[in-house]
């Protein structure tokens, strides 16, 4: 019965190490996605420390690949030293992922305040020219999120660009994608997106942070299972002198 349990633990552990390799790729993807998306919305969110969870996630993903390699070798060779190192590293990574979750929740709560403090300034800096970074950012967000203005399209009337243009129109990025002949004129409000961008930008950034949080929580749970299986193998190997190696003909470390 004991041998069955230990064999099962080793089998699960080898399988988990394969999952760790897949997890490494997924975590690196999530971290890169956060970086890319932040680059699109960075004008609306000036606190670069928000990227800390993404940086940590990428670092953890890279480390998980190495952990998977160590874990597979230690499990197959049934090295006591290797398995002990595997458990210690997993524990450190688990603690790091708990920190990522905490930071994720902290920065997720700050998103609304940060966007509220910066979005008015970004809209006031709009010039309507493509080389201008603020203008490109606003046009991109309005097209992607299908919104117009801060709270609604009427917010454009208070901007310097609107006052200088004197054509009673908003940027073409406010036009609904289904309207082919839209000119952005406020005399045809039905052609424009009715919803403001502030709430949608906040929602988008909070969703991104939740991706980081859920990724960290999911793989932290998998790592707990990995640590449990490795500990079972270590304990049984230490207590049972008749313990059989996973590979026939293998030797104790």
Automatic annotation (TrEMBL):
Subcellular location: Membrane
Top-rank taxon, per record: Eukaryota
Pfam families: Tetraspanin (PF00335)
GO terms for cellular component: plasma membrane
InterPro entries, A to Z: Tetraspanin/Peripherin, Tetraspanin_animals, Tetraspanin_CS, Tetraspanin_EC2_sf
Topology in membrane: Multi-pass membrane protein
UniProt KW keywords: Glycoprotein, Membrane, Transmembrane, Transmembrane helix
Membrane-spanning segments: 12-36, 48-71, 83-107, 208-235
Family to which the UniProt record says this protein belongs: Belongs to the tetraspanin (TM4SF) family.
Protein role: Regulates the proliferation and migration of oligodendrocytes, a process essential for normal myelination and repair.
Complexes and interactors: Interacts with claudin-11/CLDN11 and integrins.
Name recorded for this polypeptide: Tetraspanin
Species of provenance: Sphenodon punctatus
